[in-house]
Description:
This protein is mostly helical. The protein has helices at residues 42-46, 57-91, 95-106, and strands spanning 13-14, 26-29, 35-38. The chain is built from 3 helices and 3 strands, in the order E-E-E-H-H-H.
Amino acid sequence: MTTPAAGSRDNPVTTTVETVLPVGCFWFLDPDGTLCLVPGCTARIQDPDAQCLCDTLAARLDHLTEKLRALQARQETANQWWHALSDVVNEHPDGQTILTATHARRHR
Length: 108
């Protein structure tokens, strides 16, 4: 059995005057032992048992990981096109002329 994440309803964090509050929704035990929720998103303000919609580091990591995968796929497609185009130009009878003209235009 896994331990629930710190700050969840099943594993609230204990608080003291020196405790720095985490960003987003979190559950804590009041010094008198009362379980309390500090909502960080509208969903939890309306319903404490709702799924937390806070922008957490884990959510940011998931979003950026997906964005990276999409960019890598896009780059792979661009690389395939580049290699195919390079092969065609190199095999063309006027390939060197095309490369020279392209080089000149790039440095305008």
